[in-house]
From TrEMBL:
InterPro entries: FN3_dom (IPR003961), FN3_sf (IPR036116), Ig-like_fold (IPR013783), NDNF (IPR019326), NDNF_C (IPR045805), NDNF_Fn(III)_1 (IPR055271), NDNF_N (IPR056225). Keywords: Glycoprotein, Neurogenesis, Repeat, Secreted, Signal. SMART domains: FN3. One of its GO terms (molecular function) is heparin binding. It comes from Sitta europaea (Eurasian nuthatch). Residues 173-310, 431-539 form the Fibronectin type-III domain. The gene is Ndnf_1. This is Protein NDNF. GO terms for biological process: nervous system development. One of its GO terms (cellular component) is extracellular region. PANTHER family: NEURON-DERIVED NEUROTROPHIC FACTOR, PROTEIN NDNF. Secretory protein that plays a role in various cellular processes. Acts as a chemorepellent acting on gonadotropin-releasing hormone (GnRH) expressing neurons regulating their migration to the hypothalamus. Also promotes neuron migration, growth and survival as well as neurite outgrowth and is involved in the development of the olfactory system. May also act through the regulation of growth factors activity and downstream signaling. Also regulates extracellular matrix assembly and cell adhesiveness. It is found in: Secreted. Its main location: secreted.
Length: 553
């Protein structure tokens, strides 16, 4: 560093801290006055290298760097990754004053120079939280930058990456435009996940891999945060969670599984199981051997094998289904049972109901797949057909008649259905349904930025909520086939909600409504869903509709 003004104004920088940590600056200023050379060199931030910064509670820590002198435009970026609790960090900049001070002028001009430079110090960025944040800047002057870090909760550490060479590529793998993890299947002991490919995986597949973390506590915003949390639970971990998965590093409470080129480590900790799975560049994975009726949190990290750097997808969670019911399950008045059928086994699932009234009402709501239902009364068949959407059976018999309901999946994939049995006069669980649950779109009303859809209503006032989701061409089949028609809006992302409205018409022929959804992107596919809510609050989902906006208008 050749800019002598740096030495003159460094004490001034130490007094320009964010308000929450001004009280802790006195000792640092005194240290500088005693030995400014050592103070400067102990806090310089390396360029092009990831630096680990250890923070003590309520004690600020500062690092400096100077943009290269003589460059017309000096771009730079700073990425800070908290590895535990939320922290506060900020960036201050001190631009060089006109002209350069010389070392011999320090004693005679220190006061006037400090007063003149005070107006040239400014805070350009401040953040408080535990998310990974990146600041990108550009400066046309030689400038001194100060980074301040503070943890107010407890001792912790963060990683900091500074680079002034933006042409050399990124240390961290790139995330896709939509970094969410989608849950596309839930079973008693399995959860199937998928996520969009990282651009880095598509360009540098041999040095990139996806690693999945599964736990029962919460999601993690970075790989180092996950490592820190697992270590704090009392167990030792390999230095790098996703990369150092070697047998000789395993602890007694760890189990390693290697199958189909996927490396898994299962850690037994007090808060439950923690699993780490690295699966190369596959972006769909079924997590096996989970516990039934348990909520799990899933995080996917894209890892650069050459640099050990990683980026985190937006985590998700899912609850596995309850334990399978006994072979013959008793149906109780008004109680809803959710049945999941294994398509590969092609076995019947049996439900038994003993009538306490002459008229009995069976309700079936098909959630996923295709199912055939067979109903007998005292051993004689009274109904048998393939289910579609929502189906009612009203049967009349005698008191204490025994009904046996048998369900079977008619396809190889898993299917699921909700079943209810009740007296005929029992308050219906589901709302009154229209003649059709199809959503219609109007091709002539499509524009580059909007789509108009319509659906049928009923004679009773009900609530209808519209949701939209942007999809790709190769996702249409999966979205339509794997959609859980029993799931309500609570399973949807908040950003997908368009509107909710009430309407009805006593004349079924006029019970139709339209809605124009605006703010769309040109030439883009969208998946539209409508949810109908009745008096019980249980939703019925219309058949999803895929519409593409016009490319040119």
């Amino acid at each position: 560093l050749k800019m002598s003004w740096f030495w003159l104004y460094l004490p001034l920088m130490a007094t320009c801290l964010c308000p929450s940590i001004k009280a802790a600056t006195t000792s640092s200023q005194q240290s500088f006055k005693t030995d400014p050379y050592n103070f400067y060199h102990s806090l310089i931030l390396a360029d092009g290298k990831e630096t680990t910064v250890h923070l003590l509670k309520d004690i600020p820590k500062r690092y400096y760097f100077v943009l290269e002198e003589g460059r017309v435009l000096a771009p730079f970026s700073i990425t800070v990754t908290p590895c535990d609790v939320p922290i506060e960090w900020s960036i201050l900049v001190y631009k060089s004053p006109p002209g350069k001070a010389t070392p011999g002028d320090h004693d005679t001009q220190e006061v006037s120079k400090s007063q003149k430079a005070s107006s040239m110090v400014s805070t350009i960025f401040n953040y408080k939280g535990n998310s990974v944040e990146t600041y990108m800047g550009m400066s046309s002057h030689s400038a001194l930058y100060l980074l301040e870090f503070l943890s107010t909760e407890r001792d912790t550490h963060v990683t900091v990456y500074l680079t002034t060479d933006t042409t050399a590529g990124h240390l961290y793998p790139a995330l896709p435009a939509d970094p969410r993890i989608d849950v596309i299947g839930v079973g008693h002991t399995t959860v199937t996940l998928t996520w969009k490919h990282s651009p880095s995986a598509l360009q540098h597949g041999e040095s990139i891999q996806y690693c999945l973390l599964v736990n029962e506590k919460h999601n993690y915003k970075s790989l180092c945060a996950a490592e820190t949390a697992i270590r704090s639970s009392g167990m030792k971990l390999p230095p790098t969670l996703a990369l150092s998965l070697s047998p000789y590093l395993l602890e007694p409470q760890q189990v390693m599984i290697l199958s189909n080129s996927e490396l898994s480590i299962i850690n037994k900790v007090s808060s439950g199981e923690v699993r780490q799975v690295c699966m190369g560049t596959k972006n769909t994975y079924t997590v096996p051997n989970l516990s039934p009726s348990t909520q799990y949190y899933f995080d996917v990290f894209i890892v650069n094998l050459l640099t050990n750097a990683s980026a985190a997808y937006t985590g998700t969670f899912a609850r596995t289904l309850e334990e399978p019911e006994p072979k013959v399950t008793e149906l109780k008045d008004g109680k809803v049972i959710h049945v999941v059928l294994d398509g590969k086994k092609q076995k019947f699932y049996s439900l038994q109901y003993q009538a306490r009234h002459k008229k009995i009402h069976f309700t079936f709501q098909l959630c996923q797949g295709q199912i055939r239902v067979h109903i007998t009364r005292n051993g004689k068949t009274v109904a048998s057909e393939n289910l579609s959407g929502l189906r009612y059976f009203s049967l009349k018999g005698k008191l204490l008649d025994t009904y046996l309901v048998q369900l079977r999946s008619t396809e190889e994939s898993n299917s699921s259905v909700k079943v209810q049995a009740s007296p005929h006069f029992h308050r219906p669980l589901f709302p009154l349904l229209p003649e059709s649950l199809k959503i219609k779109s109007f091709s002539k009303l499509r524009t580059c930025r909007s789509v108009t859809i319509a659906w049928l209503g009923t004679q009773e006032e009900s609530k209808y909520c519209v949701y939209r989701k942007r999809i790709e061409e190769d996702q249409i089949r999966r979205e339509l086939q794997s959609a859980d028609r029993c799931s309500g809006p609570e399973s949807r992302h908040k950003s997908e909600k368009v509107l909710c409205k009430y309407f009805y018409d006593l004349n079924p022929q006029r019970a139709v409504t339209t809605e124009t959804i605006k703010g769309l992107q040109a030439g883009t596919l969208y998946l539209f869903d409508v949810y109908l809510f009745g008096p019980s609050g249980i939703p019925v989902r219309y058949h999803s509709k895929v519409v593409k906006t016009r490319k040119k208008c």
